[in-house]
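Practice problem: DUF2256 domain-containing protein
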Amino acid sequence: MKKRHLPQKICVVCERPFSWRKKWEKNWGEVKYCSERCRRNKN
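Answer key — structure tokens:
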């Protein structure tokens, strides 16, 4: 799959778009944060 065809979501913390990653393959539907840093600073 080419990078421009990867699915994208918007991070709920920083509100920036982020693309699908191989490590999220099995739980892409549950991913909300673009990075570990945003996940920790969700407040």
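Discussion: The mean pLDDT is 91. Students who identified this feature from the tokens alone can consider the problem solved.
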